[in-house]
Amino acid sequence: MIRRISQRACGFAKNQFLKSSRFHGESLDSSVSPVLIPGVHVFHCQDAVGIVAKLSDCIAAKGGNILGYDVFVPENKNVFYSRSEFIFDPVKWPRNQVDEDFQTIAQAYGALNSVVRVPSIDPKYKIALLLSKQDHCLVEMLHKWQDGKLPVDITCVISNHERASNTHIMRFLERHGIPYHYVATTKENKREDEILELVRDTDFLVLARYMQILSGNFLKGYGKDVINIHHGLLPSFKGGNPAKQAFDAGVKLIGATSHFVTEELDSGPIIEQMVESVSHRDNLRSFVQKSEDLEKKCLTKAIKSYCELRVLPYGTNKTVVF
Q: Catalytic residue numbers?
């Protein structure tokens, strides 16, 4: 059950039905006021009466204004999730005080997760991109990043395939000062220690069609989130050349799945899925093109959602995506 809550609804009883409400800000937009700046807060704890009121009062007491509020309380589960978008005056409510005030509420409710992001003040997430031979996802992400539509700092690109220096990708990376690391791998040596050293200072990793399986030791050593793009709706065609497998099988619907990486192959919590219809009129070339378009759109959307604090863990292998 997803509940969108207006400010007026904050004082209502916990079990009362709350209809969708959206305020005068469709998204986080610093142009709302020359003084007020946008922030976002996510909260995850055991469900209880008064959580919404407490969080709303926290913002209002400092002169802030809520632009949007999403709440999810799973049926028959004593769990509460929320995500709020708000604007505030950083002079009246300093950035460090914002954290302290929300942390006080988190401690009162024994919250499992309470995170604040203020895009205009906080540093962007630092990421590294890993890929193999196919580069359509990398190209899409680089262009989105260049246009300012992907709120990250790309620290480096790592690949187990070497690329010529005169290619479009290598020229782009050189022009923008993004290091490219060629790390050749074999079945016997995945060179994970070297990769781990290259990505140690990042906030999360993106596998942009990296066709190597990361070991449990690597995931434990890294200790942060890794996001992957899978060539289909999980579960799906496995092994090499999945588009041709699907084409030969005559499927009528193709898809792409972006998910968190776990030790169990292609079984991590799903962040985003996209689908598109195909027919007998598609040849293999158009089939592959549609599949690649889905992959790059799906991965980019998943990363954007993650950076905007829209993705929260739910249960053992699911996500809440606001």
A: 266
